[in-house]
Amino acid sequence: MIIDLLYFEGCPNYEPALGYIENTLRELDLSDIKIRQIEILTDNQAQQMKFLGSPTIQISGLDIEVEARNRDDYGFSCRLYRGGDVPAFEVLREAVEEAQLGIHREMTNALEPARSCASISASAETGYHRWAAGGSLFAAVAASACCSLPLGLLALGVSSGGIGPFFATTRPFFLGFAALALGAMVFLQYRNHRQKVSCPSCTESESRMLLPAYTWVMVLLAGVFAFLPTFLPDLVPNANANVIDSDSTAYTVSMSIEGMTCAGCSTIVEQTVAPIAGVLSALVDFDAKQLNIAVASDVTVSIKKIVDSLEANGFNAVLLIDDDLLESPM
After folding, report:
1. Which of 74, 196, 301, 310 could in theory staple to 278 by disulfide, Cβ–Cβ 3.0 to 4.6 A?
2. In terms of pLDDT, which residue wins out, 120 or 240?
3. Are 313 and 160 spatial neighbours (Cβ–Cβ below 8 Å)?
4. Averaged confidence pLDDT in the chain
5. Nearest to 179 by CA among 222, 123, 215
6. Which DSSP string do the residues of 183-215 spell out, in sequence order?
7. Which of 95, 96, 88 is nearest to 20 (CA)?
8. Where does the chain show beta strands of DSSP type E?
9. What CA–CA distance (Å, rounded) separates 108 from 106?
10. Given a cut of 50, is residue 115 above it in pLDDT?
11. Domain residues of the chain, as ranges?
12. Chain center to CA of 122
């Protein structure tokens, strides 16, 4: 900051103005501020320096009187201020404070691009992290849809058709995508941690501070959905609602089931067959790809209905053991 004292030779108020500036700066504990004394010699110089008369006091090129900054009556004349030949103490103090604030703003503006870039970078990284998290969770849910979606439809009394087999064929692709998205999410979290360590003074937004917990919650959820078909049989209530009485179980019908790709499919098969009238229980041996149906001795069961129900949910059934008391599939 520089204070300019503009004057012309012979001005009686020049020296009092100089003393006024020095005393004011001393009282403000700003004696280190440079005072530049400029003698105005020509009209052109008066125009260029915005000389409103002697003495004119400027700080960083601005007149200390705010209302005088819009004036253009530059020239050689004696200048009077409100209250006397020199400005009041408050006028110079306020002008100095204004200049100090202006310097602070300039420094802030100079740093603002870097801060903005850092903010944009952090915001973009957070956005990428969320996209990776959402993508991994979506892919994991889609990977489990081969079993979870048909079961949901069965609970609503709707056949799943070919939905299960379709998602079974796409399951490896969804699992691969989920793994890639999870890897990207963990990488972004690790990079965020390294940046924080390398710049401990940098401030973080609340959303970035929550990323570690958010990351591992999403990893857990994605893992649960990705492996849902594996432990689905242990989660779904037993489809065999009837208590099997050994005295009432006269027949067992076995079928070979095609189309089962995971343990979760065995649950779908059981849930499909168990509600059919006359069926006491339906148990699937997934490794053997075989369905064993316990049939009540006093009820006639339609094999055709069982086969059709399984086909409606995307499975092919081939009868292995038949009984004379059972209706013909035709």
Report:
1. 301
2. 240
3. yes
4. 76
5. 222
6. HHHHHHHHHHHHHHHH-TTS---HHHHTHHHHH
7. 88
8. 2-7, 34-39, 56-59, 62-63, 249-258, 279-285, 290-296, 316-319
9. 5
10. no
11. 2-87, 122-226, 237-319
12. 11
Which residues are within 8 A (CB) of 113 and not within 5 positions of it... i.e. 6 or more apart? none
In 3D, which of 314, 282, 286 has the Cα closest to residue 301?
282
Does the reported pTM lie above 0.85? no
Q: Is the pLDDT of residue 317 over 80?
A: yes
Geometric angle at alpha carbon 122, from 116 and 128, rounded to 5°: 135
Closest CA to 8 of 48, 36, 41, 35: 41
Token representation of residue 236: 């779904």
Fold of 237-319: Alpha-Beta Plaits (3.30.70)
Omega before residue 55 within 30° of 0, cis? yes
Question: What are the tens digits of pLDDT across the range 259-312?
Answer: 888 878 888 888 888 888 888 888 888 889 999 988 877 777 788 888 988 888
The number of angstroms, rounded, from the C-alpha of 140 to the middle of its chain's C-alpha atoms is: 19
Task: Take residue 97 and report the two structure tokens written for it.
Answer: 């404070």
List the CATH code of the domain at 2-87. Answer: 3.40.30
CA distances from 280 to 15, 179, 192, 255, 262 (A): 115, 42, 58, 16, 24
Query: What is the full DSSP assignment across 110-148?
Result: HHHHHHHHHHHHHHHHHHHHHHHHHHHHHHHHHHHHHHH
Q: How far apart are CA 21 and CA 3, in angstroms?
A: 9
Q: Which amino acid is present at 25?
A: L
